[in-house]
Amino acid sequence: MIGRLNTKEKKVTVIGGGISGLLAAYYLHRHGYEVTLLEKQKQAGGLIDTIMTPYGLAEKAAHSFLATPSMVSLAQGLGLKLLRAQTRTRYILRDGQLKRMPLSPKEAFHAVWRFLFSRAQSDAQTFAQWAKEHLNESAMNYLLNPFLLGIFGATAENISVKAAFPRLATFPGERVWDALRRTPKKREKTFLAAFEKGTGSLVKALSQDLTLKLGKNFVLGKAVEELPRSGNVVLCVPAYEAARLLQKKHKALARALEKVNYNPFVQATVFLEKRAEIPKGVGVLIPPQEKRKILGVLFNSHTFAYRTVSQELHSVSVFAGGSLFPEIVSLKESEIREIIEEELAALFHARKYIRHMEIVRWHKGIPLYNEDLRLAWDIAEKLLAQEEGLILFGNYTGEISLRGLEKKASQLGS
Known about the structure:
Elements: E1 2-4, E2 11-15, H1 19-30, E3 34-39, E4 50-53, E5 56-59, E6 65-67, H2 69-77, E7 82-84, E8 90-94, E9 97-99, H3 105-117, H4 127-134, H5 137-152, H6 161-164, H7 176-182, E10 191-195, H8 200-214, E11 218-220, E12 232-235, H9 239-246, H10 251-258, E13 262-273, E14 283-285, E15 296-298, H11 300-303, E16 313-321, H12 333-348, E17 354-367, H13 371-384, E18 390-392, H14 402-410
Parallel strand pairs: 2-3, 2-12, 3-11, 8-14, 12-18
Antiparallel strand pairs: 1-18, 4-5, 6-10, 7-10, 8-9, 13-16, 13-17, 14-15, 15-16
C-alpha cells in the first residue's frame, strides 16, 4: 500500500471492487469513514471466484492462505467457516520423481552453509544474482526457482530481491543472517486454511456486507473515467488501470505504472476417479530443469475437505503459464486440455481417470515483482509523500497474498 489518507476528510472513494477494494471498503467503513465503492464489472471480486461444478468446487484464483488471527476474525465476522489443512507435506519434482527434499545431503549442507556464512560481494538486484552469492546451483534450481514460480510465476532471473522479499536483500559484505537481523519481523501464529465453500464465498460475504452497509454507495457496473476531485481516493485497480486514471494528475507515475508487467496464467481444476495415484500432500512444484509444461499441481482434496461432491473423487489444480510458457493462455481450450492431460499422465498416470476439467485463463494474472515495479514504487512513494488523500492498493503494491492484503486493509484509517 502506497500513500496515506487525509484523516480530516471522512469521505473515501474506493475505485475497484476486486478483493483489495472490497477489503479496503470493509475496513474503512468499520473505522468510521463514509465509503463509496465503484466497480466497472457487474460482479465484484476481480480474479477471485469459486465455480460450483457437478463434481465439486473449482477456484478461479486463490485456493488457500496462511490464516492469521486477523483473517480468522474477519471470517468469523462474516459468518464464514475456515478449514485447516489436513496435511503439510509438499513436494518438488526432480528427475521425474516427487521428492520432499529435492537436494542430496551434500547439496543441502553446502546450501545451508552458504546461506548462513557467505557474504555478499555486490548489491544483488535479481534473485539469480543473490543466489550465486548465498546459495548453490542446486538450491537455486530445486528450491528457490520452484518457490518463486509458485508465487510469482517467474524464475529468479526475473524477480527483484528488494521488491519480492526485501528482508533478504544484502549489502556488500553482509550475510543473509545480518540482513534478517537488520530488519526484524514480528511473527504471528498462522495455519494453512481455506474457506469451506471456496474463496469466492469471501467475495460474496464482503459484497453482501457492503451492500447492506453502504447501500447506494456500493456501485457495480460503473466505469470510472477520471479521479474524483474531492475526498480521499483509494485506487484498488491493476497498475495499468491506475496509470490511465493518474495520467492527468501524475504523468511520471502513470508512465512508471504502465511499465509494470503481469504474467499470464492458466489454471485447470481437474476431477479424477479415486483410483488415480495422487500422493498425500499439499501439492508439487516443478522446476524449469524438469522440462514440463506446467508450473505445479495442488492436491485440493487431500489438503482440504469438501472439495469434491463424492469421496470417490480427487480434485487437483494444475497451473501453467507465467514467464516460462506465456503463450498457453492464447491456445484453444482443446489444446490446453490436451497439455493438462499429458502432464497428469506423465506425473501420476492419471489420464484415464479424468472425469471433468474446469479451465480458467488470465491474460494479466500476477504482477511481475521486478526492478520496473520497484521503480514505480519509488516514484509513487516520493509523489504521494507530498500529498494526502490518494492511496494505491493492490497485489502490485507490495502484498501479493490474501493474508498480506487483508493485513494492510485492516490498517486503513485505524
